[in-house]
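Late entry, written up from scratch paper. The run itself happened at the end of the previous shift, but nothing got recorded in the book at the time, so transcribing now.
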Amino acid sequence: MFGEFRAFLLKTNALALAIGVIIGGALGTVVNSLVNDIIMPPLGALLGGVDFSQLKFIIKAAAPGAYPATEVAIRWGSFLNAVVAFIVIAFVVWRLSSVFIHEPPPDEVKTCPFCREANSLQASKCRACASEI
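Output as recorded:
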């Protein structure tokens, strides 16, 4: 049974998918740190010392002396950090995919002189207009 499972992992893309998920999780952690610790603090300093992670719109303030102090707020600064992290992750994934994933060149085709339809190199008649190629 273990040998069958091992063959499944090695013959399918399950192993590649598992490795991709692990690396993706690690990349997400690194990018979140990049955004929260490197990008946003200087941006906040340029905008007058703003800490984006603490920006919020308070809907209902916490009751004084209440335990636990529950505040109802829209934390739009944290959302902004998440949007910046998403953009950075999307850019990195786009660049990695453009470097490592190449589409095969298109097959060579014959173009019909009458209707300009692309046909196989072995075709003797056009598949669209049935004229001799």
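Strands lie at 57-60, 72-74, 109-111, 118-120.
(Scratch paper discarded after transcription.)
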